[in-house]
Amino acid sequence: MIITDISVIVFGHVTRRHADAAGHAHPGPAHTVEQAMLTITTESGEQGHSFCPPAVVRPDVIDKYVRKVLIGQDHRDRERLWQDLAHWQRGSAAQLSDRTLAVVDCALWDLAGRTLNQPVYKLIGGYRDKVPAYGSIMCGDEIENGLATPDDYARFAETLVARGYKGIKLHTWMPPVSWSPDVGMDLKACAAVREAVGPDIALMLDAYHWYSRADALKLGRGLEKLGFDWIEEPMDEQSMSSYQWLTDNLDIPVIGPESAGGKHWHRAEWIKAGACDILRTGVNDVGGITPALKTMHLAEAFGMACEVHGNTAMNLHVVAATRNCRWYERGLLHPFLEYDDGFDYLKSLSDPMDADGFVHVPDRPGLGEDIDFDHIDAHRIR
Ligand SMILES: O=C(O)[C@H](O)[C@@H](O)[C@@H](O)C(=O)NO
Ligand SMILES: [Mg+2]
């Protein structure tokens, strides 16, 4: 039970996803990027693993903070270890990020599950073994027949419905796309998708993140006419009062915050301020499964849904262990990418989806990631 070692392996991972100047992903040629696997080991050799970009678990952060808090501790004390790491953030000069807390917390949950031979969501307390997924489409682009026009979005939406999705979220065009942002074009894409899929598919929009209040209101009013289920991140989430204003002026549910910091504490303030109708959390956004569950339960106490940001096993287990979340966000998707091909370092998908749009939680222990350790060893960089 006592943690004796924390290690990081950096390996090469082949992907066709490329980040643009704003950090949003788009398809491109296959290229190799560095990926890190954090491993926490106990005195009896039990291990838990979690994946992230190498910078999140760079040696100085692991040595100065993570090892100091975890080594010699009982791995089952996830709550205390998470609180201790969160307290170290204050004195870390912003070097110890919520993302690092998340990868450590996930590895501890994976360790607990692997040790007990149980999936994480069953350790938390399962609510369901399969969850409905919405297809989360990548941000728009200027790629011919990609996501360059409203018709491109409409055609892709039809493909997603045929695949089984019962919900679709659009991310529309954002800089560096040359002519964006453009509320009119956002609404044309949303109208084209609604026309293509009909009234029974749930639709949501995740918009350009820095619209003015006036533009966000215009966008929201347009989505109301199209019967969309929520509007997401149309303004800078650092302005909670802007979201309070928008929520007061729109009928369509406003969801958030996704990217704002402050973990579950700040999300409590959004609820108190009436800055959202649906709360949002995400394992990477709030610092782990542990605080994501706190956020889910916070929202539940206020009679609110809390939708979980992001794909991968860590978020799927949170959705499977809670009632007040309607969807699993499966993505990001693009006509030129085959999402079901998965990752080259996992032997199978962590979020397999059936033809009816349900993602089945793997019955494998821990986070259930079917890790190809031989692949990782063969492509190890350091
Ligand atoms: O890079 C990002 O901002 C996220 O990946 C984002 O595109 C997407 O995950 C999101 O906002 N989902 O709600
Ligand atoms: Mg979002």
TrEMBL record:
Gene Ontology terms: biological process: carbohydrate catabolic process
Pfam families: MR_MLE_C, MR_MLE_N
Location of the Mandelate racemase/muconate lactonizing enzyme C-terminal domain: 150-253
One of the record's GO molecular function terms: magnesium ion binding
Keyword tags: Magnesium, Metal-binding
Cofactor(s) required, per the database record: Mg(2+)
Name the UniProt record assigns to this protein: L-alanine-DL-glutamate epimerase
Organism: Loktanella fryxellensis
